[in-house]
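quick one, 324 residues, struct below
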Amino acid sequence: MDVTELTRLEIAYCVELDRPGNPFQRRARLLQSIWRAERGHEVGRYLPRGCTEPRPLGSRLPTAWAKETLANYLTETIRDVVRSEVLDPVKSRGKVYGRPRIFDNLLSSQPLAFNLFGELQKDLELTTTVMRDLTGGRVDEVMGIKFEHSPGRGDSRYTGDHSAFDVFIEFTTPGGKSGFLGIEVKYHDDLKGGRDCYRVRYAEVAELMGCFEPAMMLRLRTPRLEQIWRDHLLAGSMRIQDGDKYEDGLFVLLRPRDNIACATAVNDYRACLSNENSFSEWLLEDVMKALMDHTNAKWVRLFFDRYLAFDKVDTELAAASRHG
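---
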């Protein structure tokens, strides 16, 4: 079956899965289906709610094969990083990687984080140049990149919960101070996930951070904003607790431009802030531009083709429409 036939099947799956649905989620699912089909990877399966038999889904890979081959990852360098960070039982101890999603789910944001930052972990000179651009010079030199990082899961000195950053970048400032970027990566997500239990520690950290509008504190506990808030609080708690180690800290939410559900949540979150010194939003497209300004590395083009080449979706949708 060729790419077009596979994609047309996937169009039907997407309409059924997402009704009434999120338009960006449908397009992202289709793009991942196209990427998989172009490479000749077999279709994975999933079990729909209320069903007893699994069915094919174009944005999935066969689970056992995906884990063995790490086909969800773009280059051998990235696959080596995944082997080190995820498959090494010592290094991955205490970290929460969604299994089997990190292997077989083409839409998952955890693989995206590795596909974007895995090569950068091995090229800190390029990472430094790109982070300088993205932070307006706040970063002087990047010292290292970690994945699924928390200073202490469940540790009451921080937020007391199990929040972690998808990507954690340590850097020095132009003044020679130490700092960090704690990055939460989103792709097709709509921020409507489950809530965590509220902790009194959140209010304590929020007051010490001094960047929240007092009248908005209850709004921050709503489902669409709570995950952003908890990650932001984790960054703030690190600045408070580890101020002797980190003299600067910034929480970043990274998302695609057209993920409107995510954009709306971020705009609502910003309305709760009295200042944004410790919070930033990056667009995936802007990160790509910064990379392309400084390198012609093949992996950057591979990443764009995998996650942002939505013209392919438009082509397939038009073809599907012509053929009924």
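The chain has 13 helices and seven strands.
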